[in-house]
Design goal:
about 400 residues, alpha+beta, 4-stranded mixed sheet, 14 helices, about 35% helix, about 20% strand
């Protein structure tokens, strides 16, 4: 990391102050990896809850291949943490809540006040996707049920759909989701992938149960948190982390303490967490498979900029048009993305339906990553159906044999 600017520096404007630090592309990549908990020794004492506080948001998704995405995220950073231990760390003792961040995410409970701006925006709008026939009566009925019966799923409240398509919600489903949007109700856990709802007054610690922060302060704190979780980022990266608007980021950037930086090869100015600039990122790189919804790679332009790796979730792409597979998980090794695998499970066999490698250097790391993932989900064998390029299959097979797979 060096100070000073080359002659190709981006012109300074009111919105883009002169960079204070110049970073190489490699330095930026390592800073990002450390910020995401993927470089250096993991903090096992802090565990899953510490990881959640560091990331600030862990995305939820319905797809489950090896495991659900919110389980894969701590696995990638901490190793084979028991899956039940992951769920318990998220959902017990009021340590987290679910709300709209990058998408539907698990969030540290300490961030509850920071989303007051979004709750107010929903209230001002008056609805999200659906409108209720009797909003006052339907919401009152949901409040009464939760107050008298305690936490309930949609099924416990009377059912989620009217019998039609998935978006044909019942009145009680619309009501409870609306109360969730505006902060009267909290999702306290997922049970069988169903949301469990409770009253905010019961689920959120009293010291945090308020909407006192104005919009500017909410946004300032979220952009600051995103900067710390990303390490170094463009304005677009900062906005994408909690799905803010560019103008919202612009309004608070100067108050965040983030340091304007220039990164070699980045076409836009960057901003860095000052703590990330205090020391050179060093330590062990994690070798692991990443969920496509991992916050290290959930933003495609940033992933391509940091790693030169084009990542795309193809679960919703018609099968004949898929290039890498339904749920291709990138392989992180040596601080770089060097391959990907589309996994499945058949009994106690982890199946690599398609495995793609960037170079021969990725073969042994891929074998180790497959072996660890197999053990984590209770498999004792690995079968590779398709290998790209095919000529790497014998070497991969040898590496898996040496691991007893």
């Amino acid at each position: 990391m060096t100070t000073g600017l080359p002659s190709t520096a981006v012109p300074t404007t009111a919105a883009t102050p002169a960079p204070q630090v110049s970073l190489s592309a490699d330095e930026a990549r390592r800073i990002a990896l450390r910020a995401q908990g993927l470089l250096g020794a993991p903090d096992r004492r802090a565990g899953v809850r510490g990881m959640l506080r560091q990331l600030g948001a862990v995305q939820l998704d319905t797809i489950s291949v090896l495991a659900r995405s919110h389980e894969l995220v701590p696995y990638a950073r901490l190793g084979p943490v028991g899956r039940q231990a992951v769920e318990s760390a998220y959902w017990s003792d009021s340590h987290s809540f679910e709300y709209w961040s990058h998408a539907a995410c698990v969030l540290p409970i300490e961030e509850w006040p920071h989303f007051a701006f979004r709750r107010r925006a929903f209230r001002d709008r008056g609805h999200r996707w659906h409108r209720m026939r009797d909003r006052e009566g339907s919401c009152a009925a949901v409040r009464d049920r939760l107050k008298s019966e305690g936490p309930l799923t949609t099924a416990g409240l009377g059912g989620g759909r009217n019998g039609g398509e998935w978006w044909d919600w019942s009145e009680s489903k619309i009501a409870v989701e609306w109360l969730l949007d505006i902060g009267e109700v909290v999702v306290t856990e997922r049970r069988g992938w169903k949301r469990v709802y409770d009253l905010a007054e019961r689920a959120v610690p009293e010291a945090l149960l308020h909407d006192e922060l104005d919009d500017h302060e909410c946004l300032r704190r979220l952009v600051t948190q995103a900067g710390a979780a990303l390490g170094v980022a463009t304005r677009a990266d900062l906005a994408d982390y909690h799905r803010l608007k560019a103008e919202q980021v612009d309004a608070v950037l100067a108050d965040t303490g983030l340091v304007p930086v220039e990164v070699q090869g980045w076409p836009r100015p960057g901003w860095a967490d000052p703590a990330a600039l205090e020391s050179t990122p060093r330590g062990r790189h994690r070798t692991t498979l990443l969920s496509p919804f991992d916050s290290l790679i959930w933003d495609r332009p940033r992933t391509e900029r940091l790693f030169g790796f084009l990542h795309r979730l193809e679960a919703y792409v018609p099968k004949p048009k898929r290039v890498h597979g339904y749920f291709a998980m990138p392989l992180l090794a040596g601080g770089k993305l060097v391959g990907r695998v589309d996994p499945a499970r058949e009994g106690t066999t982890l199946v690599a339906r398609q495995l793609s490698l960037e170079s021969t250097k990725a073969v042994e790391p891929m074998a180790r990553a497959l072996g660890e993932a197999a053990s984590w989900v209770g498999c004792d064998a690995v079968r590779v159906e398709r290998c790209v390029p095919e000529e790497m299959r014998p070497r991969l097979g040898t590496a898996l044999d040496e691991l007893g797979l």
